[in-house]
Amino acid sequence: MSSRSCGSFLDLASGIVGCSQTPRGLPRVMTISGILSDGNASSDVDSDSTSSVCRERKIIVANMLPLQAQKDYGTGKWRFTLDEDSLLLQMKDGFSPEAEVIYVGSLKVEIEANEQEEIAQRLLDDFKCVPTFLPPDIQKKFYYGFCKQQLWPLFHYMLPMCSDHGDRFDRQLWHAYVSANKIFADKVMEIANPEDDFIWVHDYHLLVLPTFLRKRYNRVKLGFFFHSPFPSSEIYRTLPVRDEILKGLLNSDLIGFHTFDYARHFLSCCGRMLGLDYESKRGHIGLDYFGRTVYIKILPVGIHMGRLESVLNLPSTCNKVKEIQEQFKGKKLILGVDDMDIFKGISLKLLAFEQLLLQHREFQGKLVLVQIVNPARSSGKDVQEAKRETYLTAKRINEVYGSSDYEPVILIDRSAPRYEKTAYYAVAECCIVNAVRDGMNLVPYKYIVCRQGSSSMEQTMGVKLDSPRTSMLVVSEFIGCSPSLSGAIRVNPWDIDAVAEAMHMAITMPDAEKQLRHEKHYRYVSSHDVAYWARSFMQDLERACKDHYDKRCWGIGLGLGFRVISLSPSFRKLSVDHVVSAYKRTSRRAIFLDYDGTVVSQSSMIRSPSSEVVDVLNALCSDPNNTVFIVSGRGRTSLSDWLAACEKLGLAAEHGYFLRWDKTSEWESLAVDLDWKEIVEPIMKQYTEATDGSYMEVKESALVWHHQDADPDFGSCQSKELLDHLENVLANEPAVVRRGQHIVEVKPQGVTKGLVAEKVLSILANNGKAPDFVVCVGDDRSDEDMFESISNAVFNSSVPALPEIFACTVGQKPSKAKYYLDDTADVVRMLRGLGNASNPKPQYSAQFQVAFDSVFY
Question: Are 807 and 819 in contact (CB under 8 A)?
C-alpha cells in the first residue's frame, strides 16, 4: 500500500527542486500490456499481477558511482571513465556474464542543472550509471554534515561529549539525510522492476533508503551491506534517531556485516530497542520482523586479485621497486598505508616504532618505517590535529634517531599512485595496520598478494621463481579484517609497548615461520576475493527472497516507521459483521477468551477488568445458548476476585490446572504430582538473586521466573541457562519447562490451554450440546495451543457437526489462528457485537411511548 510520510522533511524530500528525471533507456514496470506504470503508482499490496518485461538485473546503489570525472575547460565538456579501483565495479566479477548491472549514486563532481539531463543520458548509455544529482545544499548537509560529522564518528565509537569533540545531533542535518535518501529511492524506483531485479544498497550513507523502497514495493528484493563498524548498543543508543535507522535496515531482506562482532552489536540493538529476538537455523541468522524474516550475513569483503596482479606487472611498478631497493639498501622496511583521520592510529604507530628503536638499539640505522598517508576523506579540526601530531612525532623520531644517511620515519603525505603503493607492498618486510577502529581495511590483503609477487616482479627483485614467499602482518584487533587473518600478530593499538614488541617479533621471526603464515593468508585471500564475496551475498539474497509471493503482505506505519506485515494468505482481520452473522445463525456457542492482552491491555497497570468488559461478559453469559470461558495463566484467586461480578462465567486458571464452570461451581483440579516444585524453587531463587530485575512468581501448580525488567541481554542469557538447567534436573519428573516472552515457566505435564478447550468441547458434546459456533481469542504463545485444538475439533468425534470456528489472535503476527484483531479495544468491540446480538435492544421505543401516552392524556 502507498503510505505517505507524516514528517515535513519527507514532504520536502519528495519535492526537491532541480532533480532531473532518469533518462530514457531503462524499462519501468509493465502492469498492463503496452502501458508503462507511473513512477507514483500505488505499491504492490496483495497484488501478484505485475508482470516483468525485462531480464533479471542487479541494481547497485551507493553514495558514489564508480566513475572518475574530469572537465575539459577548453571545450567545457565533461569526460567520464570507469574507476577500476572501485569495489562497486569489481563486484561484477561475482555475477554471471549475462547479468545486467546498473549503478545508482552520485558523481564526485557538481554538474550544472542545464547539463544534467544530457550527462545522465550519456552515463546511462556508456556506463549503465544513473546519477542522483543531489542539490548542492542537500549534498553538503547530507554527506559532510550528517554522514561525516554524526554517523561516522558514532559508528567509530566517538561521542560528542563536548563541543570540542564532535558535533552534537542536528535535526536539520538529519532532515537533509532523509531527503537525500528519498532522492536515491526515487531514482531506484524509476528504473526498478521489483519482481525481477535485485537491489543491493551499500553503507551508512543510505540507512533509511530501504524504508522508502519497501514502502513503494512491498515485495522488493533488497539487500544491504554495512561496510562500517556497527557500535555496541551502549554507544548506538545515544543516537536520537536510533529507531528510525534500525527500522530502515530491517526493511531489507538481507543485511551483511564484515564480522560477527558488528552483527552481534546490531542484533543486540534490535533486541534492546525494538524488542526483537533472533535465532539461528541451519547456519543462517534470522530476525522475525512482523512476519518477514530478515537474514543476517557475516562475510568480510575481499580484493580484486586480477587488478592487483596487473599492477604488479606494470613497468612503472617494477621501476619503482628498483628505486626503493636502491634507496633502502641494507635496511628493512615496515610499511603503513592509512587515510589521514583520527581513527587510523598513525601517531600511535609512530610512538610504538619509537619505542622499538629505544628498546632495540641494534635496529637503529637498519630499520625504516614508511608511512603512506592517503588524503583525508573529511575535513575538520580533528583531522588537522591528527595530522599535526603525526608530523611532530615523525620529526622528533628523525631528530633523535636519524642521521645524515638515515631517516627512520618516511612520511609520504600525498595521493600516491597505485603502482607506488604496490611497489612498497612488494618490498616491505612487514606491514602494520594499527587503526583504533576500522570497518574492514583491505591493506593487509593487498600486502599479502603483492608479497606473493609475479613473474616480472620476481625478475625485478632478483628472486628465484621457486623460492618461498614470506610476509608478516601486525594488525589491530579493532579492524574488520583481523578475524580472517589468523596468522597475523594481533595487537591492542593503545598498548604502545605491545605494538613495539609485535613489530620486533615480526621482523625477527624465522623465515620458515613467515613462510607458513604467508601461505595460510594467501590461500584465504585468493579464495575469498571480491567476486566470492559478491556471489555469496547475492546467493543468500536470492534465498532470502524466495518466499516473497507465498504470503500476503501489506504496509503499515507512517514516515520512517513504515514496515511490511507478511502473513499467511488465509490470515485476515476478523470482521465484526461476519462473526455476528455466524453467531446469529447458530444456537450452541462456545467462547474462549484469554485474559491479559486480550480483554485487559498488557500496558495497563490496573489488572482488573473495566466495567465495560464486565458488562460485555455478562451479556454473553446471560444467553443460555452460550458457554463462555476465560482461559488464563493467572492464579485462580486473582481471576475469582477480578471477575466476581460475572457469576455465569467459566474460569480456567493456571493454563487449565484449575477449572470451574461458573461462580457457584467448585474448582476442579487435575490430579498431578507437584513434588518437582521443591526441586525447582531453590534453583529459580538462585537465578533471581543473580539477575538484577528478575523475580519469581509462585503459583499453586507452576513456578514462573520473570526477567522483563532485567538487562535484555543478560536476562535472555540467564533464561537460556535456566531453561537448560531445569530441563536437566527435571528430566525424569512429570513437569515441562517452557521459555516464553521474558519468562521461564515450569508446570505439570499435560496442562495447556489447548487441553482446556478440548475438555470443555468434549463435555458439551457428551451432554448433547456440541457447539455449532466456536470463538477463541488470545494474544500470546500459550494461546496457540487453543487455536490448534479448536481447529482440530472439526476432525474430532467429540464435535459431530462442523461448527463455525473463529480462532483469532490479538495483533498482526504469525499465528495458527486464521484471524486477527488489532488490540484489546477491537476484541471488546467484537464481543459487544455478539452480546448485542443475544440481547437486541427494542426498536422504536421512543415512538411507542409517545403513542401510549397520547391514549391516556
Answer: yes
Res. 143: pLDDT tops 60: yes
Q: Specify the 3-state DSSP secondary structure of 206.
A: helix
* pLDDT averaged over every residue in the chain: 87
Sign of CA dihedral 452, 456, 461, 462: positive
Give the pLDDT score at 164. 59
Q: How far apart are CA 180 and CA 815, in angstroms?
A: 38
Number of Cβ within 10 Å of residue 627's Cβ equals: 25
Nearest CA to 656 among 680, 678, 643, 672? 672
> 345: which 3 cell numbers?
592510529
| b (16+ CB within 10 A) / e for 214-238 | bbbbbbbbbbbbbbbbbbebebbee
Candidates 739, 717, 715, 716; CA nearest to 727 is 739
pLDDT at residue 10 tops 90: no
> Which run of H or E residues covers position 117?
helix 113-127
pLDDT for position 1 = 38
SS3 state of residue 292: strand
Handedness of CA 98, 102, 108, 114 (dihedral sign): positive
State the average pLDDT over residues 699-706. Answer: 90
In the block, cell 612488494 appears at: 426
Residue corresponding to grid cell 513512477: 39
Cell numbers given for 822? 488489532
φ/ψ of residue 551, rounded to 5? -130, 160
The terminus-to-terminus CA distance of the chain in angstroms comes to 62
Residue 221 and residue 629: Cα distance in Å, rounded? 45
* Residue among 525, 370, 505 at smallest CA distance from 452: 525
The answer, yes or no, to whether residue 457 has pLDDT greater than 90, is no
Which grid coordinates are listed for 547? 518466499
With cell 411511548, the residue in question is: 849
What pairs with residue 838 in β-bridges? none
All cell numbers assigned to 201: 544498497
Q: Are 574 and 806 in contact (CB under 8 A)?
A: yes
C-alpha cell at 217: 514495493
Q: What cell was used for 570?
A: 488465509
> What local confidence, expressed as pLDDT, does residue 830 receive?
93
Q: Which residue has the higher pLDDT, 801 or 206?
A: 206
C-alpha 390: how far from chain center: 37
**In this model, does residue 674 exceed pLDDT 60?**
yes
DSSP assignment of 175-224: HHHHHHHHHHHHHHHHH--TTT-EEEEESGGGTTHHHHHHHH-TT-EEEE
Task: Report yes or no: 302 and 93 within 8 Å, Cβ to Cβ.
Answer: no
Q: CA-CA distance, 39 to 187, in Å (whole number)? A: 10
* E-only strand ranges, 568-708: 572-573, 589-593, 626-631, 650-653, 658-660, 668-669, 695-698, 703-706
In contact, 46 and 565? CB cutoff 8 Å: no
DSSP alpha helix (H) spans, 286-345? 305-312, 315-327
- Residue 849: partners with Cβ closer than 8 Å, 6 or more residues away: none
**pLDDT above 60 for 40:** no
Given a cut of 60, whether residue 308 has pLDDT beyond it is: yes
Rounded CA separation 188/209 (Å): 10
Is beta strand 278-281 parallel, antiparallel or unpaired with respect to 284-289?
A: antiparallel
Residue type, 328: F
Q: What is the 3-state secondary structure (H, E, C) of 67-89?
A: EEEEEECCCCEEEEEECCCCHHH
Give residue 344's identity as a one-letter amino acid code: K
pLDDT at residue 851, as a whole number:
42
Cell of 652: 480456567
For 741, the 3-state DSSP assignment is coil
Q: Using one digit for the tens of pLDDT, what is the confidence trace for 755-802? A: 888 889 888 888 888 898 999 999 888 888 888 888 776 565 555 567
Which residues, 6+ apart, have CB-to-CB distance to 451 below 8 Å?
425, 426, 428, 469, 470, 471, 518
462-511: pLDDT as tens digits: 777 778 899 999 999 999 999 999 999 999 999 999 999 999 999 999 99
